[in-house]
Design a protein that fits this description.
Elements (H helix, E strand, L loop, with lengths): L6 H10 L10 E7 L8 E7 L7 E8 L8 E2 L2 E2 L1 E2 L3 E10 L3 E11 L2 E8 L2 E8 L2 E11 L9 E7 L6 E11 L4 E10 L14 H4 L1 H7 L13 H32 L19 E2 L1 H19 L1 H19 E3 L2 E2 L2 E2 L4 E2 L6 H23 L3 H15 L15 H18 L2 H16 L11 E2 L6 H16 L1 H21 L8 E5 L4 E6 L3 H15 L2 H12 L12 H17 L4 H14 L14 H16 L3 E3 L6 E6 L5 E6 L4 E6 L4 H4 L24 E6 L4 E5 H6 L2 E5 L5 E6 L9
Antiparallel strand pairs: 1-2, 2-14, 3-13, 4-5, 6-13, 7-12, 7-14, 8-11, 8-13, 9-10, 9-12, 15-18, 16-17, 18-19, 20-21, 21-22, 23-26, 24-25, 25-30, 26-29, 27-28, 27-30
Helix pairs in contact: 3-4, 4-5, 4-17, 5-6, 5-7, 5-17, 7-8, 7-9, 9-10, 9-11, 10-11, 10-12, 11-12, 11-13, 13-14, 13-15, 15-16, 15-17
């Protein structure tokens, strides 16, 4: 990265960080600068004590904040040691004692760091509070009247990486003194030291399940003389154990959050810390609740039709404020948190709820009360859209909201067949692609991470929609869409294909660090490849998947960031099965779950639901879309595809079980009526599917054979009886359907 064009951003960033200089009787000089290439910012502060007759306190203080403005906690911007090391240089003249302190952040968890000075390395470990506290980092020696510089480097420790919002030097000097302080954020190369997320102890609390997942215990396996089939069945049995773990963890996640539901409304809180008193659309409803619903659809139909439905009905009744759009609800106030209507905030909440919550539910459930809620909210987002443009009113000027809307509308057009959804989507498409707001022509900065990347995939989804529904508009969009995709590939990725957090399209610069949402952006590019055949976009996807093993030790951050990264890989692997991606996904999914506690809570905030979302996607890969009813914690279902299109299926139970094996259907076509199955955020990839026009043949290796029609296979399924410890091995395929003579 070069300094050209970044000075204004650095200045603005420093101002936003609220650099404070405390102390009575001090004269402060603030110097803002830029460190080239390897660092993000340099902020220098000088302070002088001016009361030599008494003991004065001289403070030099520097605020630290990630250029990514989403890195905020408790209203304070910070720098996370998982992304940056902090290099601190202290100088000046003083005769008293001096201490270097850091304003360290904590989320009621344990945080660690290393303090490196010269040849010494000291650990820092702290816990037990929420927010930020000033803490002693290093005691500084007295320079004996001569200017002396001390360099201290703060890096991620062996556990959960610390984060901090600033550093300062405090000097008690009777003679008067001067302190200079600079602090520089230096991006880590790629790997955070340590083992990733701290283990929450979940597996230790369920030793019988941990043993099952590890393959302990004897299984009686039917004989199989074909070596290639035997390998596939062994892989399927292993996949069944992994899939079982995913659903068991998801089910406990539901139990954990239901234990914290508001007793009066039954709604879950935003998080279990500072926002325990509220339910909101953008977090509780968008990220957590929907994947409690989906978990119950797979593991507990009674709970789905009971408490999950009740929560939906209550949410609709007590939180709808502007039409059907929800507002933040306070449990203690028994009403809305805000006294006045904030339409922008309500539209943001509504858009998040629709796109991140109700839309993915519909991707799997199809028509349901949750789809009804989706449609009424979406219609009111546009009914009350306040922003006037030459193309008609739109909901917002926020690229996240508008990007979400592009994704939702492009799918709802096909789902409903209603022209209004395409018209609204094209209104946004014109606003960005034809109206002087092009993401890579006109944006000074384009976020490729969350809270910004939505516009990229959203515009690409609209382009795919127009390719089949509005050919003239597709031609108008073609060149600007390709220009956006080409520029992202030109300046937005590292040699591994990983995408940077933020790019500066006009100058070609980028903000250091890679984004966990890399796959969401590549979804859009690959979708464009599917309609236009642009090989560069396909090869970009294949390249990043092939390089994933290089990131096996990379610490993405919180579990939600692992979830987003794995989801992106899984969606793309479904279209481009690059073998190198498999080991990486299998490794990362366990890192994602590592923080989960015995009660099922993952990290205690709304991002917990995204772990369940990705785990469900992942387990469908391991079962090739098959599922069982009723689900039970000891039953393992796994599948392994064969090169000829057949699938080997393994079923094992520890206790007697009687139920049914149900197949997936081509949901993109039978639910959404999409013309092609392009990769899209928060979908559930399709593996082995049976359409209503097809048959599926299920052959037990012991000789029994069953043929089901598509409608029966995907609803009623095939009856199955399992004996304790005896594996059932099935081979499934889709034989040609006999034509009925008229």
């Amino acid at each position: 990265m070069t300094s050209t064009g970044l000075l204004s951003e650095i200045d603005a960033m420093a101002m936003q960080c609220d650099v404070q200089h405390k102390g009575t009787g001090m004269r402060h000089h603030v110097i803002l600068g830029l460190l080239l290439a390897s660092a993000t910012t340099l902020v220098a502060v000088s302070a002088r004590a001016t009361e030599p007759a008494t003991q004065a306190v001289a403070k030099s203080e520097v605020a630290l904040c990630d250029p990514d403005t989403s890195q905020t906690y408790a209203g304070v911007r910070y720098a996370w040691l998982g992304r940056f090391d902090v290099e601190i240089v202290v100088g000046g003249r003083w005769s008293g004692t001096a201490v270097l302190e850091g304003n360290m952040g904590c989320k009621n968890d344990e945080r660690t760091a290393w303090l490196i000075s010269g040849n010494t390395r000291q650990p820092l470990r702290y816990e037990g509070f929420d927010g930020f506290r000033w803490m002693k980092l290093v005691e500084l020696e007295t320079p004996n009247g001569d200017t002396k510089h001390r360099i201290v480097r703060v890096t991620a420790g062996p556990g959960k990486a610390a984060f901090l919002s600033g550093v300062r030097v405090v000097v008690r000097d009777r003679q008067g003194g001067t302190v200079t302080l600079t602090a520089t954020l230096k991006p880590t190369s790629s790997v955070v030291r340590g083992r990733g997320p701290i283990d929450g102890g979940f597996a230790l609390a369920y030793p019988e399940m941990a043993g099952l997942w590890a393959g302990e215990g004897e299984i009686s396996r039917p004989a199989c003389d074909d070596a290639s089939l035997e390998r596939a069945f062994l892989a399927a049995e292993k996949n069944g154990r992994v899939a079982n773990e995913m659903l068991f963890r998801c089910r406990k996640f539901v139990d954990g959050w239901l234990a914290h539901a508001d007793p009066e409304t039954g709604l879950i809180p935003r998080n279990l810390r500072e926002s325990k008193d509220i339910w909101n659309g953008r977090d509780s409803a968008a990220d957590n609740y929907p994947f409690m619903v989906l978990t119950c659809a797979l593991t507990d139909r009674e709970l789905l039709q009971g408490r999950m439905r009740q929560m939906l009905e209550t949410e609709r009744r007590v939180t709808s404020r502007v039409g059907s759009m929800p507002d933040v609800y306070s449990f203690s106030k028994h009403g809305f948190l805000r006294d006045e209507v904030d339409l922008d905030a309500i539209i943001f909440d509504a858009s998040e709820y629709v796109k991140d919550g109700l839309l993915p539910l519909t991707e799997w459930l199809g028509p349901s009360p949750w789809l009804d809620r989706l449609l009424e909210i979406e219609d009111d987002i546009w009914k009350y859209a306040p922003v006037e443009t030459p193309y008609g009113n739109i909901p917002s000027t926020n690229v996240e909201v508008n990007g979400e809307q592009l994704q939702v509308l492009s799918r709802l057009y096909w789902l409903t067949g209603e022209q209004k959804y395409l018209q609204w989507a094209e209104r946004l498409g014109d606003y960005y692609l034809l109206g002087g707001r092009h993401p890579t022509d006109d944006f000074t900065g384009l976020r490729l991470r969350d809270h910004g990347c939505e516009i990229v995939s959203g515009l690409c989804e609209l382009y795919v929609c127009c390719a089949y529904a509005d050919a003239p508009k597709r031609e108008r969009y073609r060149e600007p869409i390709h220009r956006m995709c080409d520029r992202i590939l030109e300046i937005g990725r590292d040699p591994r294909g990983m995408l940077y957090n933020i790019i500066k399209p006009r100058t070609g610069e980028h903000v250091p660090g890679i984004c966990d949402t890399w796959g969401y952006n590549y979804n859009g590019l690959y979708a464009v490849y599917m309609v236009d055949g642009t090989q560069d976009y396909r090869e970009a996807v294949r390249l990043v998947l092939a390089h994933l093993p290089e990131l096996v030790d990379y610490h993405w951050g919180v579990a939600d960031e692992y979830a987003d990264s794995i989801e992106g890989a899984l969606n793309l692997y479904n279209r481009e099965p690059v073998s190198e991606a498999v080991e990486w996904m299998d490794s990362e999914i366990h890192d994602m779950w590592r923080p989960q506690r015995p009660d099922g809570i993952v990290e205690g905030w709304h991002g917990d639901g995204n772990s369940a979302r990705t785990a469900i996607m992942y387990q469908f890969w391991k079962t090739q879309g098959l599922r069982i009813e009723p689900w039970r914690r000891d039953v393992r279902l796994g599948a392994s595809p064969l090169p000829d299109g057949r699938v080997c299926v393994s079923m094992v139970a520890s206790e007697p079980w009687r139920g049914k094996l149900i197949f997936d259907r081509p949901r993109h076509r039978e639910i959404f009526h999409l013309p092609i199955d392009y990769p899209r955020i928060n979908q559930f990839p399709e593996w082995f599917t049976v359409s209503i026009e097809e048959n599926v043949r299920i052959r037990d290796v012991t000789g029994d054979e069953t043929v089901l029609g598509g409608a029966e296979a995907t609803t009623e399924g095939m009856p199955v009886v399992l004996e304790p410890g005896k594996e059932k091995r099935l081979i499934v395929d889709k034989p040609p359907r006999k034509q009925t003579r008229k």
